[in-house]
C-alpha cells in the first residue's frame, strides 16, 4: 500500500465489476436457491409436494445444525474437523444410557459433545495449537472412541420416545427441522446481539488487537469450540432418532466437509472476522437442493459430488474477488 | 524548482540510474508529480521526506513494483521497463527493506546463497562448499556466525547484514537502503558504513533513505527532498545546512520552525493529586530491567529512548500483555492482576498500540463495531448488547473526534491512517479509562490528523487522565510531555522535568549512557 | 566480490544469540521425536509379544505402511510449502480404480493412466492455488469431492469393481516379495531416498522450504513460487495415485470405498514426524517415522488380541494430541 492512498479520507467508489462480485458474495447464495427452486418447479414433478419438501428439510437439518457451530468456529479463523466424530460419539453413547431413560441418554450424548469441544477449545485457546491440528486429534480419536464404546457394532435403537423425536412433527413440520430452525434463530441472535458474538468475530478479525482491547480471548475461543461440539452432538442425536439405529462407523462421515462447504458457500470467509448465520443455512440448503435436483433427474451421485466441488470453488472465488484480495 | 545537480567527485560518469519525470497516481490521487532522480556510479544519494512525501512510492517505481503512469526509469542509459522487483534485481537494482526480506527458518548460508548454491555432480547442492562460501562472504561484512544456524537465531543487525550481503553479491549496480539503521546497534551502524564505503569504491550507487540527519551528513553525497509527491530540493548535501533540510522536509519556514516548533501541544498541564498509575520494578528477561514509574491525573509522562530501549515493552507490561518475571502495577492504589490484559482494561488502563494495522483495528468490522469493541461488557446487560447505547456512544465519539467516514457502518479498513487512529482512541475513550498509554500515536498519519491527535491527547490530559506518551519524534515527546523518563536497554536511566526538559537534554541523556555502554 | 582488508577496519558482529536450551530441545524433539518413540515401541513390543518381532510380522507392518507412506511423502512436500492436500484419500482410491480399469490395455496403461490422471488432478489444484490464489484447504476439499465423483462415475456409482488378473505383471508388482519384503516396500524406500535428496540438495527443495518459511521474501529472492507450488501438488497427486495403484495391485482389484479419511491420517503421520503445519520446516525421514509409528501402534493393538481395532484410532488421536502439544509448548516464542 502506498503512503498516499493510505491517507485519503474515504475509499473511492468501487468499479462495477467489484460491486457485482460483492453483491454475489452477499446475496449470491440466496439468488442461486431462488433460481434452483424456480427451475425445479418447472421441471421436477411433485417438487412442491409436502412429502418432498419434508424429505429435503429432514435430510438437511443435521447439516444445518452442525454448520451453525462450524460458522462460529470459522468466524474465529479456526476450523473444527471433529464434528463428524462427535456425531459418531453421540450416537454411540445413546444406546449405552437408554436404560436410564431417553432424557439421560440424550444428556450424556450432549455432554460427550461438550467434552470434545472442551478438549478442542483448550488445545486452541490455552496451548495455542492450530485449530486444524487440534481438531484433527479428535477427528482421528473421537470416532475410534465411539467404535470402542459401541463395540464396533451397529445397534438398533428401539425406544419409542427417542424414535418419536425423529418422526414426530410440530404443526406439520418435522421435529428435526423445528430444532434446526430454533437453533438458527438462536445462533443468529448470539452472533448479532451478544457480547460473545461480537467478541468472537473481533477475535477472528484480529486476534492481537482483541487481546490488547482486553477481550477474554481464551474464554471466547473455548466457548466457540464447546458450542460447535454441542451442536454436532445435537445433530448426532437427531440423526440417531431418524435412522432408528446407532451406527458410529458411518454416522457423520464427511460431515466436517459438508459443514465447511455450507459455511463457505454461505459467504463466511475462511479467514475469519465475519459470521453469516443465515447465509450458512442457505449454503446447506443450496447444496442439498443441488443434490436432490440431480438425483431426481437420474443424474448419479458422482455428478452431484463433482457439481458440489465446482460450487465450493465458485463460492470461494467470488468471496476472494469481492474483498479484493 | 530543482537546483541543477552539482558537481561531485564522479560527476563526469554517465548516470547508472535515472528516473525521468515520473508521475504516479493511485485512484486519482497524485502520489508522484514529475519526479526526477539521477544516480552516478559510486554515489551515495540521500532520499528524504516526511511520511506520505512519496519516498516509498518512488522506490517502488524504481524497483518495478509499480509502473509509472508517465515518465520512465532508465538503467545505464537504456529504458529499464522492469516488470517486477525480481526483474529489477536481475538487472542489478537491489532494495534492502526495513522488514528483512529473508526466510527466518532457513539457515544463514541458504538464505545468503538461495538460488546460487554451489553445485556438485548431478546438479546437487554442495553443502560444505556452500557453508564455506557463506562464512567467507559474511566475514567480509563483519559478521562471524555459524552459518548453519537458522537465520532467526541472529540478532536483527546481523540479519540485516546478511540481507545486504545477499543484495550486493548478486551483481548489484544500484542498492536501495530503506531505513537500514533503524534496528542497528551503534557498532553495527559503523559496520554498515564500512560496507557502504566499500560499495562506493566498487562504483555501486546507493540510494539511502533515513530520517537520521547525522547519518545522512556522514555518508551521503547528494540529496533529494520530496514533499507531497514533488521534488522540493535536489543537490549536494554538503551545500545544505541541517535546519534548512528540516524546513524543506516539513515545508515550514526556518524562522517558523525555530520560533514555534512543529507540534500542536499546548504545553504544561496542572498535574494534581496522588499518582493514579504506579508501576513498580517491572522486569522481564532480556526486555525490561526494574522499570518503575508513576503518573498522576492530568499528567503526560513521556518515555524516551532509542528503538529497542524498552518503551513499547514498558507500555505492554503495564497493559498486561507482556509476561513479567517481577514487578507489578497499581491503578488508583489497587493492584492489577499480572499478565492479564482483561484485568488491566477493567482497572482502567488503555493501550493504543504502535502497530495500528496488526494490533489495533479489526479490519473486517465496521467503524461502529471497532469503536464499541473494548466497551462491550459495559454496553451489554446479561451478555446481550444494546444497539441503542452503542449507537449513542459511537455517534458521540465520531463527532467529538471528527472521524471522517461515510457513516458508522463503513468498514474501518477503508479509512485513512489518521482516522483509524482516531477510531482506536474512540474505542478506548468509550471505556472511560483512567490511564492512557499511547505508543507512537502519530506515526504514519498525515500532518492534519497528526495535529488533531496531538490536540486530543492534550484535551484528554486536561480532562484528568494519566497519559503515557511514547514517541520517536523528539519534538513531539518534549512538547507533549510534562515529564520524560528515559530508558536504555530496558532500564530507566534518567528523568527530565520542567526547564531541564529539552530535546538536547533528552538526547544527552540517551547518548551519555550509550557512550558509557560502548566504553 | 570480497575485499580482504575490509574486515580489519570494520567492527565484527559475532553475537549469534545463543540458542536456548528450549530451542535446542525443540529442534531435537522435532527432528527425532517420532524416531525415538518408534524405537521405544519396537523394543517394548518385542519384549511383550513373542509374535511381534518375527520377520513375517515386521514385513507385514512394512507393507501395510508403505501405501500411506507414499502418500505422506507427497503430503510432506505440500505441508512444507505451507499448504495442505485434502484430496489424497480420494485420489488414492481413484488411482486404484483407474489402474484396475486400465490394466485391460496392458501393464503400462495400468500404471500410466492412474499416474497421469492423478497428476492432472494435482495440476488443476496447483493452478487454482498458485495462479488463482485460492486457499489450498478449499481447493483440495473440492478436489476430494471431485476425485471421488470421478471414481464413482467410472465404477458405475461404485457398483462395478474392476479386477486386476492374478498373475498379471501389475498384480505381481503389488504382491511380489524379495527377501521377505514386498516390492512396494522397496519402491517406497527408494522414493523416500529420492525425496530426501530432492528436498535437501536441489534448488527445488530449497524453494519448497523458502516458500513455506516466508512466501513474499522467497518471491523477492527469485524463487519461482507459483511453479514450485504447482509441482508440489502434482507430485502429491501422482504419489497418491501411485500408492493407490500398487494397493489395488496387491488386492487384485480397484476397491472403490478405500481412502475415506485417509488424508487426515496421512496429515497426522506427517505432523507426528515433525513437519510443522505452518510450513517452512520438516523432513521426509520424520514422515517415514511418523507413518511407521502409526503402523506399529496398529499392529501392537492387534497383538493384544481381544482389543478392538478401533483402539488404534483412539491411540493415534491421543498420540497426535501429545505430539502437537509438545511441539507447541517447545516452540512457543515469547509472543507480544
TrEMBL record, chain A:
Membrane topology, as annotated: Multi-pass membrane protein
Higher taxonomy: Bacteria, Bacillati, Actinomycetota, Actinomycetes, Streptosporangiales
Primary site of residence: membrane
CDD domains per record: TM_PBP1_transp_AraH_like (cd06579)
Keywords associated with the record: Cell membrane, Membrane, Transmembrane, Transmembrane helix
Name assigned to this protein: ABC transporter permease
Residues making up the signal peptide according to the UniProt record: none
Keyword GTP-binding: no
This protein's record includes keyword Transmembrane helix: yes
UniProt subcellular location: Cell membrane
Residue stretches spanning the membrane: 27-48, 57-76, 96-119, 131-151, 171-191, 220-239, 251-270, 277-296, 302-319
TrEMBL record, chain B:
InterPro entries (alphabetical): AAA+_ATPase (IPR003593), ABC_carbohydrate_import_ATPase (IPR050107), ABC_transporter-like_ATP-bd (IPR003439), ABC_transporter-like_CS (IPR017871), P-loop_NTPase (IPR027417)
Annotated ranges, domain ABC transporter: 17-253, 257-514
GO MF entry, a single one: ATP binding
UniProt keyword terms in alphabetical order: ATP-binding, Nucleotide-binding, Repeat, Transport
Top-rank taxon: Bacteria
PANTHER family membership: CARBOHYDRATE TRANSPORT ATP-BINDING PROTEIN MG119-RELATED (PTHR43790), GALACTOFURANOSE TRANSPORTER ATP-BINDING PROTEIN YTFR (PTHR43790:SF9)
Protein name: Sugar ABC transporter ATP-binding protein
Species, as recorded: Actinoallomurus spadix
Automatic annotation (TrEMBL), chain C:
Transmembrane segments: 32-49, 61-79, 109-130, 137-156, 176-199, 230-249, 284-301, 313-330
Annotated localization: Cell membrane
Membrane topology type: Multi-pass membrane protein
This protein's record includes keyword Transmembrane: yes
Signal peptide annotation: none
Keywords: Cell membrane, Membrane, Transmembrane, Transmembrane helix
Listed Pfam families: BPD_transp_2 (PF02653)
Keyword presence, Secreted: no
PANTHER family with a match to the protein in the record: ABC TRANSPORTER PERMEASE PROTEIN YPHD-RELATED-RELATED, INNER MEMBRANE ABC TRANSPORTER PERMEASE PROTEIN YJFF
Name assigned to this protein: ABC transporter permease
Species assigned in the record: Actinoallomurus spadix
Amino acid at each position: 500500500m502506498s503512503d498516499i492512498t493510505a491517507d485519503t479520507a474515504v475509499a473511492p467508489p468501487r468499479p462495477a465489476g467489484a460491486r457485482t462480485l460483492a453483491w454475489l458474495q452477499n446475496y449470491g447464495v440466496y439468488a442461486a436457491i431462488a433460481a434452483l427452486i424456480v427451475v425445479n418447479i418447472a421441471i421436477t414433478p411433485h417438487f412442491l409436494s409436502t412429502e418432498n419438501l419434508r424429505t429435503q428439510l429432514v435430510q438437511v437439518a443435521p447439516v444445518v445444525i452442525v454448520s451453525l457451530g462450524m460458522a462460529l468456529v470459522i468466524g474465529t479463523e479456526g476450523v473444527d474437523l471433529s464434528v463428524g466424530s462427535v456425531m459418531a460419539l453421540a450416537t454411540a453413547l445413546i444406546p449405552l444410557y437408554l436404560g436410564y431413560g431417553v432424557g439421560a441418554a440424550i444428556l450424556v450424548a450432549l455432554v460427550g459433545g461438550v467434552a470434545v469441544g472442551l478438549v478442542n477449545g483448550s488445545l486452541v485457546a490455552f496451548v495455542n495449537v492450530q485449530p486444524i491440528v487440534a481438531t484433527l486429534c479428535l477427528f482421528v480419536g473421537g470416532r475410534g472412541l465411539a467404535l470402542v464404546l459401541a463395540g464396533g457394532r451397529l445397534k438398533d435403537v428401539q425406544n419409542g420416545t427417542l424414535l418419536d423425536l425423529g418422526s414426530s412433527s410440530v404443526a406439520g413440520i418435522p421435529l428435526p427441522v423445528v430444532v434446526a430452525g430454533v437453533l438458527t434463530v438462536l445462533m443468529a441472535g448470539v452472533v448479532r446481539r451478544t457480547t460473545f458474538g461480537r467478541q468472537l468475530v473481533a477475535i477472528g478479525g484480529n486476534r492481537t488487537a482483541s487481546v490488547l482491547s482486553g477481550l477474554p480471548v481464551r474464554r471466547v475461543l473455548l466457548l466457540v469450540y464447546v458450542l460447535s461440539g454441542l451442536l454436532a452432538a445435537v445433530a448426532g442425536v437427531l440423526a440417531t432418532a431418524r435412522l432408528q439405529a446407532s451406527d458410529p462407523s458411518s454416522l457423520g462421515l464427511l460431515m466436517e466437509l459438508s459443514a465447511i462447504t455450507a459455511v463457505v458457500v454461505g459467504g463466511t470467509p475462511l479467514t475469519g472476522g465475519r459470521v453469516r448465520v443465515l447465509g450458512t443455512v442457505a449454503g446447506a440448503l443450496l447444496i442439498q437442493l443441488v443434490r436432490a435436483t440431480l438425483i431426481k433427474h437420474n443424474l448419479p451421485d458422482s455428478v452431484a459430488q463433482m457439481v458440489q466441488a465446482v460450487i465450493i470453488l465458485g463460492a470461494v472465488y467470488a468471496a476472494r474477488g469481492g474483498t479484493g484480495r | 524548482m530543482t537546483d541543477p545537480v552539482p558537481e561531485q567527485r564522479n560527476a563526469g560518469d554517465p548516470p547508472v540510474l535515472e528516473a525521468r519525470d515520473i508521475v504516479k497516481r493511485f485512484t486519482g490521487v497524485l502520489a508522484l508529480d514529475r519526479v526526477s532522480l539521477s544516480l552516478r556510479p559510486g554515489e551515495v544519494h540521500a532520499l528524504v521526506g516526511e511520511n506520505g512525501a512519496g519516498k516509498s512510492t518512488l522506490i517502488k517505481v524504481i524497483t518495478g513494483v509499480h509502473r509509472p503512469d508517465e515518465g520512465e526509469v532508465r538503467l545505464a542509459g537504456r529504458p529499464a521497463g522492469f516488470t517486477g522487483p525480481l526483474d529489477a534485481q536481475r538487472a542489478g537494482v537491489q532494495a534492502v527493506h526495513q522488514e528483512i526480506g529473508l526466510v527466518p527458518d532457513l539457515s544463514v548460508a541458504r538464505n545468503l546463497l538461495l538460488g546460487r548454491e554451489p553445485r556438485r555432480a548431478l546438479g546437487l547442492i554442495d553443502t560444505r562448499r556452500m557453508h564455506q562460501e557463506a562464512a567467507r562472504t559474511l566475514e567480509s561484512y563483519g559478521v562471524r556466525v555459524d552459518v548453519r544456524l537458522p537465520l532467526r537465531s541472529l540478532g536483527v543487525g546481523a540479519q540485516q547484514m546478511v540481507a545486504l550481503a545477499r543484495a550486493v553479491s548478486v551483481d548489484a549496480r544500484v542498492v536501495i537502503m530503506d531505513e537500514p539503521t533503524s534496528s542497528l546497534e551503534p557498532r553495527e551502524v559503523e559496520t554498515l558504513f564500512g560496507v557502504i564505503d566499500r560499495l562506493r569504491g566498487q562504483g555501486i550507487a546507493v540510494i539511502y533513505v533515513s530520517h537520521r540527519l547525522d547519518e545522512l551528513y556522514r555518508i551521503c553525497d547528494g540529496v533529494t527532498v520530496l514533499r507531497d509527491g514533488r521534488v522540493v530540493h535536489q543537490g549536494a548535501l554538503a551545500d545544505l545546512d541541517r535546519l534548512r533540510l528540516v524546513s524543506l522536509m516539513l515545508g515550514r519556514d526556518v524562522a517558523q520552525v525555530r520560533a514555534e516548533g512543529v507540534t500542536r501541544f499546548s504545553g504544561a498541564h496542572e498535574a494534581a493529586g496522588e499518582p493514579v498509575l504506579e508501576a513498580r520494578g517491572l522486569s522481564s528477561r532480556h526486555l525490561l530491567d526494574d522499570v518503575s514509574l508513576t503518573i498522576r491525573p492530568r499528567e503526560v509522562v513521556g518515555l524516551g529512548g532509542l528503538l529497542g530501549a524498552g518503551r513499547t515493552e514498558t507500555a505492554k507490561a503495564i497493559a498486561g500483555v507482556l509476561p513479567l518475571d517481577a514487578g507489578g502495577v497499581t491503578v488508583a492504589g489497587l493492584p492489577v492482576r499480572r499478565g492479564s490484559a482483561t484485568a488491566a482494561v477493567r482497572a482502567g488502563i488503555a493501550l493504543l498500540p504502535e502497530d495500528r494495522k496488526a494490533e489495533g483495528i479489526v479490519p473486517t468490522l465496521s467503524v461502529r463495531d471497532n469503536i464499541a469493541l473494548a466497551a462491550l461488557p459495559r454496553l451489554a446487560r446479561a451478555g446481550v448488547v444494546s444497539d441503542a447505547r452503542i449507537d449513542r456512544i459511537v455517534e458521540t465519539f465520531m463527532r467529538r473526534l471528527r472521524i471522517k467516514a461515510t457513516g458508522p457502518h463503513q468498514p474501518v479498513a477503508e479509512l485513512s491512517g489518521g482516522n483509524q487512529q482516531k477510531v482506536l482512541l474512540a474505542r478506548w475513550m468509550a471505556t472511560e479509562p483512567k490511564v492512557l498509554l499511547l505508543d507512537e500515536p502519530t506515526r504514519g498519519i498525515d500532518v492534519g490528523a497528526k495535529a488533531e491527535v496531538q490536540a486530543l491527547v492534550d484535551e484528554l490530559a486536561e480532562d484528568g487522565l494519566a497519559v503515557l506518551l511514547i514517541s520517536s519524534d523528539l519534538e513531539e515527546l518534549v512538547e507533549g510531555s510534562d515529564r520524560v523518563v528515559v530508558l536504555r536497554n530496558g532500564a530507566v536511566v534518567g528523568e527530565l522535568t520542567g526547564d531541564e526538559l529539552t530535546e538536547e537534554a533528552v538526547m544527552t541523556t540517551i547518548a551519555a549512557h550509550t557512550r558509557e555502554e560502548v566504553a | 566480490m570480497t575485499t580482504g582488508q575490509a574486515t580489519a577496519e570494520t567492527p565484527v558482529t559475532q553475537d549469534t544469540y545463543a540458542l536456548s536450551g528450549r530451542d535446542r530441545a525443540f529442534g531435537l524433539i522435532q527432528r527425532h521425536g517420532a524416531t525415538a518413540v518408534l524405537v521405544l515401541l519396537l523394543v517394548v513390543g518385542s519384549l511383550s509379544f513373542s509374535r511381534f518381532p518375527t520377520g513375517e510380522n515386521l514385513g507385514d507392518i512394512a507393507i501395510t505402511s508403505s501405501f500411506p507412506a507414499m502418500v505422506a511423502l507427497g503430503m510432506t512436500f505440500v505441508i512444507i510449502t505451507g499448504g495442505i492436500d485434502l484430496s489424497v484419500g480420494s485420489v488414492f482410491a481413484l488411482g486404484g480404480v483407474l489402474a484396475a480399469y486400465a490394466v485391460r490395455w496392458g501393464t503400462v496403461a495400468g500404471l500410466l493412466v492412474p499416474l497421469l490422471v492423478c497428476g492432472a488432478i494435482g495440476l488443476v489444484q496447483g493452478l487454482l492455488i498458485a495462479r488463482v490464489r485460492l486457499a489450498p484447504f478449499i481447493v483440495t476439499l473440492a478436489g476430494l469431492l471431485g476425485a471421488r465423483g470421478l471414481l464413482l462415475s467410472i465404477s458405475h456409482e461404485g457398483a462395478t469393481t474392476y479386477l486386476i488378473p492374478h498373475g498379471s505383471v501389475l498384480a505381481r508388482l503389488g504382491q511380489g516379495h524379495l527377501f521377505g519384503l514386498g516390492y512396494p516396500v522397496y519402491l517406497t524406500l527408494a522414493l523416500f531416498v529420492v525425496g530426501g535428496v530432492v528436498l535437501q540438495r536441489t534448488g527445488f527443495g530449497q524453494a519448497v522450504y523458502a516458500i513455506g518459511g516466508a512466501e513474499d521474501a522467497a518471491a523477492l529472492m527469485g524463487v519461482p513460487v507459483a511453479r514450485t507450488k504447482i509441482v508440489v501438488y502434482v507430485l502429491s497427486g501422482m504419489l497418491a495415485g501411485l500408492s493407490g495403484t500398487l494397493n489395488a495391485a496387491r488386492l487384485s482389484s480397484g476397491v472403490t470405498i478405500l481412502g475415506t479419511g485417509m488424508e487426515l491420517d496421512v496429515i497426522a503421520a506427517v505432523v507426528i514426524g515433525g513437519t510443522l503445519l505452518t510450513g517452512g520446516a520438516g523432513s521426509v525421514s520424520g514422515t517415514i517415522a511418523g507413518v511407521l509409528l502409526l503402523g506399529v501402534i496398529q499392529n501392537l493393538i492387534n497383538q493384544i488380541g481381544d482389543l478392538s481395532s478401533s483402539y488404534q484410532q483412539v491411540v493415534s488421536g491421543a498420540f497426535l494430541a501429545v505430539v502437537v502439544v509438545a511441539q507447541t509448548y517447545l516452540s512457543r516464542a515469547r509472543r507480544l
